[in-house]
């Protein structure tokens, strides 16, 4: 149990830094000032984990129980703000770091929920929630439709990573390899969605002639 708690804590810290970079990079892209960049870095890094901890009764949430998460978010925000060209070397750094953070938080969130006695389906869902929560707030604050609500594979990738942890734990496999495999699966699915265009189905109804007539009622015209 101690090794699992340590794993969750390490993954939380790694995910915090990676998601903070994601939020800060978007802030720089949107030409926000230093305070705005730091706010985006912090909320992206901690909102998902706070939501998860509140729902499973881990009070106070780990993200605000110590100063480490705030410090990591501030460091990440300042680094991106002061050295944006360093992160521009990655193709679309926001999406790359978001994919990595998605996988790390999905695995950490699922494992923490399992450690608190949550049943396996909801543990995977909570892992997904902790992975997508920060990104949803980040996108909302920058007046964008949250990525999770688009057709791109995003939340599904996080759910797949969480389910990998559940299955691995059920089979009695070692915790660390299972966590790494779950993270890798989530990141792989997310990056393939970005670079190969993997998408979920979307509604087929479209307005005709730009008039937004909507679907016909039953029985035809």
Task: Give structural notes.
By secondary structure, this protein is mainly alpha-helical. Helix content is 71%, strand content 0%. The chain has one domain. It is globular and about 45 Å long. Residues 208-221 have low confidence and may be disordered. The protein has helices spanning 2-29, 34-56, 62-65, 68-82, 84-88, 93-115, 120-141, 155-170, 175-196. The protein contains nine helices and no strands. 47% of the residues are buried.
What can be said about this structure in brief?
The protein is an all-alpha fold and 221 residues long. The chain has helices at residues 2-29, 34-56, 62-65, 68-82, 84-88, 93-115, 120-141, 155-170, 175-196.
Fold blueprint:
Elements: H1 2-29, H2 34-56, H3 62-65, H4 68-82, H5 84-88, H6 93-115, H7 120-141, H8 155-170, H9 175-196
Helix pairs in contact: 1-2, 1-4, 1-6, 2-4, 2-7, 6-7, 6-8, 6-9, 7-8, 8-9
Key terms:
single chain; 221 residues; mainly alpha; 9 helices; globular; disordered C terminus
Sequence stretches where pLDDT stays below 50 over 5 or more residues = 208-221
Distance between the termini: 64 Å
Overall shape: it is: globular
Structural class: mainly alpha
Approximately what portion of the residues adopt beta-strand conformation?
under 5%
Oligomeric form = single chain
């Amino acid at each position: 149990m101690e090794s699992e708690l340590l794993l969750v804590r390490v993954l939380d810290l790694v995910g915090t830094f990676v998601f903070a970079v994601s939020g800060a990079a978007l802030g720089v892209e949107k030409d926000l000032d230093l305070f705005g960049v730091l706010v985006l870095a912090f909320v992206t890094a901690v909102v998902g984990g706070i939501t998860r901890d509140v729902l499973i009764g881990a009070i106070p949430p780990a993200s605000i129980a110590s100063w480490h998460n705030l410090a990591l978010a501030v460091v990440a925000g300042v680094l991106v703000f002061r050295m944006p060209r360093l992160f521009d070397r990655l193709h679309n750094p926001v999406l790359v770091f978001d994919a990595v953070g998605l996988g790390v938080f999905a695995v950490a969130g699922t494992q923490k929920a399992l450690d608190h006695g949550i049943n396996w389906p909801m543990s995977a869902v909570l892992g997904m929630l902790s992975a997508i929560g920060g990104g949803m707030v980040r996108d909302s604050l920058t007046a964008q439709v949250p990525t999770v609500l688009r057709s791109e594979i995003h939340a599904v990738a996080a759910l797949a990573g969480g389910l990998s942890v559940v299955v691995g734990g059920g089979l009695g496999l070692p915790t660390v390899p299972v966590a790494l495999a779950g993270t890798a699966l989530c990141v792989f699915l997310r990056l393939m969605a970005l670079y190969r265009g993997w998408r979920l189905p979307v509604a087929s109804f479209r307005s005709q002639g730009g008039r937004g007539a909507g679907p016909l009622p039953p029985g035809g015209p």
